[in-house]
Amino acid sequence: MTVLRIAILGAGIFIKTQHLPSLVHNKKADVVAIYSRSKDSAQALADEFSIPDVYYDKNNTDGNTLELLLARSDIDACVIALPILVQPDVIKKVLSSGKHVLAEKPVAKDKATAVELVKFYRSLPAGLIFSTAEQYRFHPTFLEVADIIKQGGIGQVHSFGYNESSYIRDDNPYYNTEWRKTPEYQGGFILDAGVHSVAAIRLVLGEDVESIVATTSLYKRNLQPTDYMASLVTMKSGVKGTFSMDFSVSVSTFRFVVNGSKGSIEISRFPNLGYKITTIDGEVTEKEAASFETPAQIAVYQEIDTFLDDIASKKQTERAKPEQSVIDQTVIETCLVSNGSVVTVE
Predict the structure, then answer these.
(1) Which of 46, 90, 104, 171 is most buried, by CB atoms within 10 Å?
(2) Please, are residues 92 and 70 in contact by the beta-carbon 8 Å criterion?
(3) What is the DSSP string of 147-181?
(4) Do domains 4-133+299-314 and 137-294+327-344 have the same CATH topology?
């Protein structure tokens, strides 16, 4: 088994709680370097996870900058989780240095920037893997439910409902990242979290969105520019559904229901994501999500494991391609600009 040498670009919450635990528990990876804008944040994670080499930019006095990291020929790939506005240029630099990339979503502030980034990637010589870290496309429950629906387990699908809500407190660690407090990109938390939801809808239903009519509001003034979105969605097949997100309410909910001619299937209890099938005759089947031995979410581990396998096989998994992330982002942007009118997703 080939062990790939990985550099981490970013030292935020998700790197600490998800990416690094996943990599540490994966025998296919060896994390050899970490970069952050500040030395202190990079050094803290280097000490916690025994990462030998630290790189940073701010007030750098020893020359260990990002450019020096990218000049290393012994690093195979980079896992990137940086602020949305910064990511596209860094991804281009990493790819140009000949290193594979797994980048957190959204990869850019808007569809236009994301499309340009993907075009840049596709213009490079074949062989480099650029994947987006959309863990919902790798969660075992979403994958299992998608297969049940594909195999006709609830009959002909005719409708769905997806609702996710939570209260973003002022002490929420994700809210307290500076680039989220004053987002210079469309949608704020609705974009940041909504791309996950769209990924789940597209995966489970096995098709893309045709059109949307949506409305948005801002109820919690510090969650600029919007914290609430409700929409009616029409899929390519004509299946219709509701899709809503709200980050201003005190009750956290997660419920995704797909209805068919033979019954309904409901995914709930996030983040464990068990599911329940109820037939039209009232028969109920329930399944709890599988337990997992690492501190990270199982879906994050799976997306990273797939990325490592793709590098080794030199063949990219369809679910991980950056074009998938662009589609997710396009759907959310369509919701944000609909303003009560039906808009075709293009």
Answers:
(1) 104
(2) no
(3) HHHHTTTT-SEEEEEEEEEEE--TT-TTTTSHHHH
(4) no
Closest by CA to 136, choosing from 81, 199, 57, is 199
Q: Of the given ranges (57-71, 262-276, 296-310), which has the lowest mean pLDDT? A: 262-276
Which three-class secondary structure state does DSSP give residue 226? coil
Q: Which residues contact 16 (CB under 8 A, 6 or more apart)?
A: 45, 48
Q: Is the peptide bond before 271 cis (omega within 30 degrees of 0)?
A: yes
pTM, full prediction: 0.92
User: Would strands 248-260 and 228-235 be described as parallel, antiparallel, or unpaired?
Assistant: unpaired
Q: Any idea where the domains of the chain sit in the sequence? A: 4-133+299-314, 137-294+327-344
* Three-state DSSP class for residue 298: helix
Cβ atoms 30, 4 nearer than 8 A: yes
Helix (H) or strand (E) holding 66: helix 66-70
Q: What is the pLDDT of residues 129-139, one digit of tens each?
A: 999 999 999 99
Q: pLDDT per residue over 16-57, tens digit each?
A: 999 999 999 999 999 999 999 999 999 999 999 999 999 999
DSSP helix/strand/coil, 286: strand
Provide φ and ψ at 297, rounded to 5°. -60, 140
137-294+327-344 maps to which CATH number?
3.30.360.10
The full length of the chain comes to 346
CATH class of this structure's domain 4-133+299-314: alpha beta
